[in-house]
């Protein structure tokens, strides 16, 4: 972990995402560029991104200059209820004025191996729009599962050192095929932010923050980034710290080596 940012609740956390999204996108446009983000699915991300659809932010963000990619996708059709694309459309994309050409979805209905190669090429081609910037993306959002997985990078899958930008993988319990960005692609970003809310995430957050073996066990510890937590997700950490700072400000930060 690079740092922890603990918020009183998920509402404050989502507000910070929206505020920072707006500021970074505006700065990118002022500098004559575009703002490229990567979104994750899961149960929590869409609700947090949904803050961006509120009138306060929806009309301020220069959506014509925002490009949206996806960390991973299940091998299902885009209208399937399990599709990350479908979920994020319902919570965000269908409610903002973003051009279709700016939405770079993973085509889960296609052959998984062929699509992993195609999506890698799309990521590389996107650099042309970024006008010489060295990194693929400005901001990557990652969730974390109770087992320590992130994107569709699961414990026990040896993708940490993959030299590809995208790979096919399988859910360890269901065997469902997935297409995922690799650490190589995700790390090629200006900013990486994990988000975790609720007590269900408290145990894995504790392990990732304090267990010396985490880097060997959990993919979420193998991609370094800042962490945005609500109080419940941070509840297994130093409670004195949470109580001291959580009520006095929207965000409390600590650094972790």
Polypeptide structure, described:
- By secondary structure, the protein is an alpha/beta fold.
- The chain has a single domain, classed as Rossmann fold.
- The chain contains nine helices and ten strands.
- The protein has helices at residues 10-30, 45-49, 55-58, 84-91, 112-126, 183-187, 202-210, 214-217, 239-246, and strands spanning 3-7, 35-39, 66-70, 72-74, 139-142, 166-170, 177-181, 192-196, 226-230, 252-255.
- It has a seven-stranded mixed beta sheet, with helices on both faces. A three-stranded antiparallel beta sheet has the order 4-7-6.
- β6 and β7 form a beta hairpin.
- The longest helix has 21 residues, at 10-30.
- It is globular.
Brief summary of the model shown:
The protein is of the alpha/beta class. The protein has helices at 10-30, 45-49, 55-58, 84-91, 112-126, 183-187, 202-210, 214-217, 239-246; strands at residues 3-7, 35-39, 66-70, 72-74, 139-142, 166-170, 177-181, 192-196, 226-230, 252-255.
